[in-house]
Specification:
- InterPro entries: DUF7123.
- The chain has 82 residues and is an alpha+beta fold.
- It has a single domain (13-81), classed as Arc Repressor Mutant, subunit A, CATH 1.10.10.
- The protein has helices at 16-28, 37-44, 48-60, and strands spanning 34-36, 66-71, 77-81.
- Helix 1 crosses helix 3 (48-60) and helix 2 packs across helix 3.
- The protein is globular.
Length: 82
């Protein structure tokens, strides 16, 4: 069974917050590479800590994105590539 880049294989195992973050990243990853937790949090009405905690599941999952913790100045920065 094959999947498309738009259909992550493990989305059902993600929490609602994790799915929101994943959608957010997918919508923007083709135009932007680096994302700060606090800015994602502001856009999704979450705390930066919630974003950081939930990004681990996305970082470790097999989705159409590659997520890597990149930096820590003034908020954790994530490098996201498609």
């Amino acid at each position: 069974m094959s999947t498309t880049a738009d259909a992550p294989t493990q989305t059902p195992s993600l929490s609602e917050k994790q799915q929101r973050i994943l959608r957010y990243l997918k919508e923007r990853a083709d135009k932007q590479t680096y994302f700060k937790s606090r800015l994602i949090a502001d856009d999704l009405d979450l705390s930066a800590k919630e974003v950081g905690t939930n990004m681990k599941a996305i970082e470790q999952g097999e989705f159409a994105l590659s997520v890597e913790k990149w930096g820590y100045s003034s908020s954790t920065t994530w490098m996201v590539t498609t």
